[in-house]
Amino acid sequence: MSITLTIDGKEVTAEENQMLVDVASDNGVYIPTLCYQRGKPCLGTCRVCTCKVNGNNAASCTVPVSDGMVVEVNEPETKDIRKALIEMLFVEGKHNCPSCEKSGRCDLQAVGYETGMMVSRFPYRFPVTETDFRSEKIWLERDRCIFCQRCVEFVRDEETGKKIFNINGRGAEARIEIDVLLADKMSDEQVTRAMELCPVGCILKKAVGFDDPIGRRKFDIASVRERATGSENK
């Protein structure tokens, strides 16, 4: 069933119950995301896709559109909320972009640029973390994890369907864990997909990492905004 809604004052049509973040993207309105993957179940963990829906703040990846809905994406207060959320993610980990293997391909870095973040308004926490290198194929750089849960929900053993990654602990004690036995069974292609699925540089393929030359970095070719809205082909 086709419905009509308004996004930043522009009337658009969509299919009822489509996710708002997808409808906005299809109509050229960029909403940053870090946990959401189009076509996959919504996680709603990062909240950086927050916008105003009928006057209330909501994560747009969790909101199915409905007829008459009024959405504000780029009004000043909402833009600052998203920027603050990005800033918090930067200070809660250790994100040294110039030395990171995923620099230029990192979703967190890219949305930082898009939101205009230059420095965080919050104090840096400098958490003490442990790198996990027990797997034969995967290097787990916990400094960079933002707990988006993409790997937890979308990376599974191809034979049993069991989760290869999970989050252990709560609050400041939470950390990403890896089932080493299952990880060691992963094909090279599956490890690469897991590495690319991670929005930051937490999951790295041992002995390879990202082997594209620096001049071909993903977000140097087309920004995250252009990729989300399809405008890189226009």
From TrEMBL:
Q: Name one GO cellular component term.
A: membrane
What's one GO MF term for it?
Answer: DNA binding
Name the cofactor(s): [4Fe-4S] cluster
Domain 4Fe-4S His(Cys)3-ligated-type, by residue range, is 77-116
Q: Which residues form the 2Fe-2S ferredoxin-type domain?
A: 1-77
Organism superkingdom: Bacteria
What the entry lists under InterPro entries is as follows: 2Fe-2S_ferredoxin-like_sf (IPR036010), 2Fe-2S_ferredoxin-type (IPR001041), NAD-red_Hydgase_HoxS_gsu (IPR016214), NADH_UbQ_OxRdtase_75kDa_su_CS (IPR000283), NADH_UbQ_OxRdtase_ferredoxin (IPR054351), NADH_UbQ_OxRdtase_Gsu_4Fe4S-bd (IPR019574)
Cite a single Pfam family from the UniProt record.
Fer2_4
How does this chain assemble? Composed of 13 different subunits. Subunits NuoCD, E, F, and G constitute the peripheral sector of the complex.
Q: Which family does it belong to?
A: Belongs to the complex I 75 kDa subunit family.
Protein name, UniProt field: NADH-quinone oxidoreductase subunit G
**What is the native source organism of this protein?**
Grimontia celer
In the UniProt record, what gene is named as encoding this protein?
Answer: hoxU
